[in-house]
Design brief:
about 150 residues; mainly alpha; Glycosyltransferase; 5 helices; 2 strands
């Protein structure tokens, strides 16, 4: 990929983050939730406005962390600020049992997997993060005797 396209991609990702640290999938989420009342269908929920998701936020942390390792000189302060806000969002969204709710898949294990990968990419681990320790307890408490 041409470097200019790579930089454009990073700039796009940075532009999608909202003030609360979350990330949408297509464009910045600026519409009001009440607009969902205008949804003309009964079977497609939450399709009228752009929403922000744990999965896209955590995935972008991973992407930008890898990018920073490969290209440490480009938008360093902006990327670090993005990651810090996104990590704060992930930490604040953690459920009391240590899990996260996933919107795109099989709910809690799926959402927790995304959040944990994002946190790990940001340098969080059991030694420096209470959030990650809570994740570990959640995963161990839900593991079956068969290992699944």
């Amino acid at each position: 990929m041409e470097m200019d396209r790579m930089y454009d991609s990073v700039n796009l990702l940075l532009s999608l983050q909202s003030e609360n640290g979350r990330l949408s999938t297509w464009e910045p989420a600026t519409a009001h939730e009440w607009l969902e009342v205008l949804n003309p269908t009964e079977f497609f929920q939450d399709i009228v406005i752009e929403h922000e998701y744990l999965e896209s936020t955590a995935s972008t942390i991973q992407t930008l962390a890898v990018f920073m390792k490969l290209y440490p000189g480009y938008q360093k302060k902006e990327i670090e600020a993005f990651i810090a806000k996104a990590v704060c969002y992930l930490e604040n969204q953690q459920m009391l049992d240590g899990s996260w709710y996933g919107c795109w898949g099989i709910c809690f294990i799926y959402g927790t997997w995304f959040a944990l990968r994002g946190l790990a990419a940001a340098g969080k681990n059991c030694n420096n993060s209470l959030t990650v320790r809570k994740v570990s307890e959640f995963l161990l408490s839900t593991q079956l005797a068969s290992g699944g």
